[in-house]
Design brief:
Blueprint lengths: L12 E4 L13 E4 L5 E5 L11 E8 L2 E8 L3 E2 L8 E2 H17 L1
Antiparallel strand pairs: 1-2, 3-4, 4-5, 6-7
Length: 105
């Protein structure tokens, strides 16, 4: 992010930012060349809405290939003052575990 809290921009690129709550600034940004008309990127806010600006899942369509690209800011932080530090990836794996556990049981 630029010093004024806006994403760095360039006329040749479009940027994609994740949704954030409470005016928080996003930790991830994706840039797509405007000259690549054969690539379509769509922000998938429905995949992990609880990781406020730390994860940017993108659905990518490039020719006949379709896949999800995950841009993850893997920060180590404490959830409470007395808890051990936890990485963003640990939180993601825990959420996936809960999701699949609910599908099975």
């Amino acid at each position: 992010m630029a010093p004024d809290d806006s994403p760095y921009s360039h006329p040749s690129f479009a940027y994609i930012l994740p949704d954030t709550a409470n005016g928080a600034w996003p930790r991830t940004t994706a840039y797509l060349s405007k000259s690549r008309l054969d690539i379509l990127c769509t922000y998938r806010s429905d995949l992990l809405p609880h990781l406020d600006g730390e994860v940017l899942p993108l659905q990518v369509l490039a020719g006949k290939e379709k896949f999800t690209l995950w841009n993850i800011y893997n920060e180590r932080k404490k959830l409470t003052p007395d808890s051990r530090p936890i990485y963003t990836m640990d939180i993601i794996f825990f959420l996936f575990f809960l999701f699949f556990w609910n599908l099975i049981y």
